[in-house]
Each structure stands twice: as C-alpha cells, then as structure tokens.
Design goal:
- The protein has about 140 residues and is mostly helical.
- Helix content is about 40%, strand content about 5%.
- The chain is built from 6 helices and 3 strands; from the N terminus they run H-E-E-H-E-H-H-H-H.
- Helix 3 crosses helix 6.
- This is (2Fe-2S)-binding protein.
- GO terms for molecular function: 2 iron, 2 sulfur cluster binding; metal ion binding; oxidoreductase activity.
C-alpha cells in the first residue's frame, strides 16, 4: 500500500497516526528501547528512526502483520504460553525482533536470542519468560521436523 506522506515524517508516526496501526509503540523516540520495532524487508528496525522516504518501495511489516489472520505466529504463541510479557508495552517490539530471528533460525541458542534482542528493553519480565518462549519455539520446530 502506498500513501502520500511528507518524506521527513517518521514511520512510527505514519503507522500510529495515519494508518491507525497502534500495536507499534513509541517509548523513547530515539531508537534505544525497541518498542517501535518493525520489519523492513525482513530486518528489524526502530520505526521512530525510520523516515518515510527510507521505506519507499520496501516491504514493511508491523506487529499487526506478524500473525496469519486469527492464527498466531509461533513466536506469539510461545510468548503467551511462557509468560514472555507483563505490561505488554515492549511486547510488540520483542515479538517483531524474535520473529526476524525465528525466520532466519527457528532453533536459536540463548546467546543468539540475546543478541537479537539487544535493541529491545523490557522493564517488567526479567527476560526469562522471553527466553523460555524462544526455546519453546525451537523445540516445537525440532519436534515437527
């Protein structure tokens, strides 16, 4: 979908204000927390640092596009089942970052998951539920494969 916007407008503002895709959160506004993470051509980026012109002609996926309709993505299911969220503010960004990792490597190590989440900050969970979710995703893939 193409929409006319000023080239200097931040993608986070376009998503939230113009397209009403409010799953993408804005917390720090300077690219440090990861709450606004989206996938740009399959790679996680902070939408608060992404200007409209930088996304022209590229694929952009928000948290709203991670699931297949009513069917949750395996990362979303695992986060829910393993308690990988509390207040939920950072959850969308975490899921987006982990989905990018999962698409590249469905059975990551904890170190790989930690690296994938280095741009995401959570102040509530202590991360253990998140890492259990990563492990659960990998284990389910191993069982299916």
């Amino acid at each position: 979908m193409a929409i006319p916007v000023p080239a200097s407008k931040r993608m986070s503002d376009i998503l939230r204000d113009d397209l009403q895709l409010t799953g993408t959160k804005v917390s720090c506004g300077i690219g440090r927390c990861g709450a606004c993470m989206v996938l740009l051509d399959g790679k996680p980026v902070n939408s608060c640092l992404l200007m409209a012109y930088q996304a022209a002609g590229k694929s952009l996926v928000t948290i709203e596009g991670i699931s297949a309709g009513e069917e949750l993505h395996p990362v979303q299911k695992a986060m829910l089942e393993e308690g990988g969220l509390q207040c939920g503010y950072c959850t969308a960004g975490m899921v987006v970052s982990l989905t990018a990792l999962w698409e590249q490597n469905p059975c990551p190590t904890r170190a790989e998951a930690e690296e994938a989440l280095c741009g995401n900050i959570c102040r509530c969970t202590g991360y253990e539920g998140i890492f259990r979710a990563v492990e659960k995703c990998g284990l389910s893939i191993k069982r299916e494969g």
